[in-house]
User: Fold this.
Amino acid sequence: MIGGYEAADEAGDRSAAVYASIARLIGAQSHEIARVEHATAGWNAAFWSVPMEAGQRILVHDHEYGANAVAFIRAAETRGVVIDLVPSDSTGQVSVEAVEERLSLGDVALVSLTHIPTNGGLVNPAIEIGSLARSAGVPYLVDGCQSIGQRDIDVQEIGCDFYSAAGRKFLRGPRGTGFLYVRDSILDRVAPAHPDHWGASLTKSAENPEILRKSNAMCSDSATFPEGWADRFEWMPGARRYENFEHSVAGWLGLGAAADCALEWGTDRIEVTVSNRAEELRSMLTEIGLEVHDQGEVRSGIVTTTSDRVPSVELRRALSASGVNTSTTSFASSPYDSLRRDLPPLLRISVQYTTTVEELTFALDVLRTFI
Ligand SMILES: Cc1ncc(COP(=O)(O)O)c(C=O)c1O
Assistant:
């Protein structure tokens, strides 16, 4: 009604308050939060900002998300880093012992961990890994896409330098929203790969603008830079350097509303509710003869199951026809784990903090008629 820029101005205070809500949600400070379009955008911004030299290793777990696996390969191709795939322990979570051993060898550029993997149902021991990364002085990136909104997250306790998250998953926020936590103390060791004029401000050096002088020398007269043009930039303070100017203001406000909703419920209560409901669901599935594939010492609200008679996609279709939304896993989103455990597509049922036992019983009734 009033125009997009004007509406954004009008919502300026509410937009600023979203940073504070997210910071409260994870135990950070407002200026350590960057607004991003989705979890992978935040994760990539963090990953590619960490300096890595040829021959250095990056420690990754075999439960990493597919997009992260692509970035690791790209970093091996373009930066010459070595992908050091840390195995799981007997419970399926990342082997803390193996991380410790590998860190002790030195020359590690980054420790990367997916907190709650796409499949597997487990919660990785992010705090234990954080303490090892910290002692070794190695940057620590946590993919929190699936832990935000279902676990009681405290980035101080985890000790991570980055924590990337999506709005649309357990926070129940709008699609196309997310955030990246960037610890203050890592800022002088990293540099975002694709800054714009929002994340950095253009400045000019007092004299001898070297970059422009060189450019002028190589250009025709009509394309040269006049004396005194900006030839440098300075990073904006805090995590803002990881942001871009343009974004969905409505989406960001929606993410803020989702964060406030979670804060109102209490993240400690949410964690207990989701864990208990998910365990109830696992027992119910086993009782009707379905196989549950979840692992881990601590298990999350993501429950994965299969029938030995009906393919998961058909189970998903049947549930959907009855108004129960679930999903199925694919090799692309969880490549290392799918390969290691030789997994077919799994039916993935995610329990939210609003999910009731009645809803679980209803879903089970639908499944029972199809298996
Ligand atoms: C562990 C994990 N990380 C990252 C993502 C990607 O999130 P987005 O699609 O918001 O980039 C997903 C999505 O399923 C995920 O499961």
